[in-house]
Every structure is written in structure tokens, then in C-alpha cells.
Design brief:
This protein is an all-alpha fold and 270 residues long. The chain is built from 10 helices and no strands. Helix 3 packs parallel to helix 5, helix 4 packs antiparallel against helix 5 and helix 6 packs across helix 7.
């Protein structure tokens, strides 16, 4: 462990940024769980069932701009924390400094900084509609227009599905004792935190694989109209007799991950 990462992890401001950011991540997942539950109950959602749609839902509520401003600060903190991890390798064992892991942290940082920017736009009233990124059809159509586009789109789809499977497996088998001070909890609470993390990982992995499955269908049929966003993928499930049950599981899983995030914010080790 380098002196830079060690000193960084020991600084109160670094720990505060991380805890605030992780808490903001939890708040986002509470909103995502609500939007997924709305689909399960009514077959539709008040907004896109993704992080940007969750922000749009907040701004519609009484006092929404104030709440969204606070959430934007939390999202910025999470993005900054992940960026610092990517740059320094964070105070963790040397094997955690692998290039692949740093690139993953950097990608997460970019996503959450983008969400922060989106939140600021909504607060400022400069944007109210869903972003293009919420709908995969335009870029799927663009890729299909390339030479070998169907094959490229198929590879991307398989990558999403594999990523979903990997996320689910990681959620169940990750050693959370490396990340959290679980020794501060009773045995029962330790098991509960691990269970929430595992169920949350399974739900997140299922969503990623579901979107990848529809994208693969679009590649096989060479038709971008078959690509679906997260919310349209969930809405498609409502046409099956088991759909509401699956979506209800997703909503519960996202809520579990939100609760795990709050525990993470409190118990994260540095």
C-alpha cells in the first residue's frame, strides 16, 4: 500500500465524501425500487425506471428541487470518491490496484458525475425529458447500420448478459468483510447485511441481463425496434402470467440493495 493511498484513507474528508456518496446511491435505489413496484402493480411507470428517471420523479414532487439539489451533492460525492479510487487505488490490498478494477471505478465515477449533471439540469429547469441514453433504440439502429453491425450488437448484448450474471454471482459470493466493519454487528445483523447485498446483486444482475436479452433479440432480427430500455423491458414482462411476480422481486431486490448501501455508508472500512 502506498503512502498516498494510506494517507488518503485516513483523512476524515475522504471518509465523509465516501459515506455521503454511498448514502446517495442508496437513495437512488429506493427510488428505483418504487418505480419498479409501480410497474408491477399498474403495468406502467411514472417515469423511466433507471437512475435518470428516478431523478425526474424526484423533481416532480413537492419540494422536489430542494431534495434533488441535496441528492445532486450526494451523487457528486459518490462520483468523486470513485474517481479518487481510480486515481490512487484507494487504501486497500495491492491486488485491488489492478488496472481493470481502476477502470471500473473510473466508469462508475463517470456515470455518477453524469447523474449529478442531470440532476443539476432538472433543478435548473433546463431539461425535463428522458435522455437519449434511456432509450437504446437510436444507438442500436446506428450500430445496425454499420458493416457487421448485427454481429457487433450481438457481442454487446452477450456482454451485457454476461455482466448481469457476473454481477449476480459477485453479489452472492463477495467477501463483504473486506469492505465493511461487519464485526461491529451481531451475527444476525451480519447475515442480514450479506443477504440484502446478495439479493440486491441478483436483482441488479437480472435487470442487466434482461436488457441484454432484448438487445440480443434486436441483433438477431436486425431490428432496433426490439431493443428495450429498463422500464420497457419490465413492462414487457407484465404480459406474462409470472411477470408481476418477477418485477416484484426486482423491486424488492433493488430495495434490499438500497438498505445494503445505507449499511455500507455506515460501516465502510478505509
Amino acid at each position: 500500500m502506498s503512502s498516498t493511498t494510506a494517507s488518503l484513507g485516513g483523512r476524515p474528508w475522504f471518509r465523509s465524501v465516501a459515506r455521503i456518496g454511498i448514502g446517495a446511491r442508496g437513495a437512488i435505489y429506493v427510488l428505483l425500487a418504487y418505480l419498479a413496484l409501480d410497474i408491477a402493480l399498474h403495468g406502467g411507470s411514472p417515469s423511466q425506471t433507471d437512475a435518470q428517471g428516478a431523478l425526474q420523479e424526484v423533481v416532480r414532487q413537492p419540494g422536489g428541487p430542494v431534495l434533488l439539489s441535496v441528492l445532486a451533492g450526494g451523487l457528486a460525492a459518490y462520483g468523486l470518491w470513485r474517481l479518487l479510487q481510480a486515481v490512487t487505488g484507494q487504501p486497500s490490498p495491492p491486488e485491488s490496484h489492478a488496472v481493470g478494477k481502476r477502470l471500473a471505478w473510473l466508469a462508475i465515477a463517470v456515470v455518477y458525475v453524469g447523474l449529478c449533471a442531470r440532476a443539476v439540469e432538472l433543478v435548473a429547469g433546463r431539461s425535463s425529458g428522458a435522455s437519449v441514453s434511456s432509450n437504446p433504440r437510436p444507438w442500436a439502429a446506428m450500430v445496425l447500420g454499420w458493416p457487421g453491425g448485427a454481429e457487433i450488437l450481438g457481442v454487446l448484448a452477450v456482454g451485457l448478459m454476461a455482466g448481469g450474471l457476473g454481477l449476480a454471482i459477485w453479489g452472492f459470493f463477495h467477501d463483504y468483510d473486506k469492505d465493511l466493519h461487519l464485526e461491529r454487528l451481531t451475527a444476525g445483523w451480519r447475515a442480514t447485511v450479506r443477504a440484502f447485498a446478495g439479493i440486491g446483486g441478483l436483482a441488479r444482475g437480472f435487470l442487466l441481463a434482461l436488457v441484454g436479452g432484448y438487445l440480443l433479440n434486436a441483433a438477431l432480427l436486425s431490428s432496433a425496434s426490439h431493443a428495450k430500455s429498463v422500464d420497457s423491458s419490465l413492462q414487457a414482462l407484465t404480459h406474462h402470467f409470472y411477470g408481476a411476480v418477477l418485477i416484484g422481486f426486482v423491486a424488492a431486490g433493488l430495495l434490499c440493495f438500497a438498505i445494503y448501501s445505507f449499511a455500507d455508508a455506515r460501516l465502510r472500512s478505509f
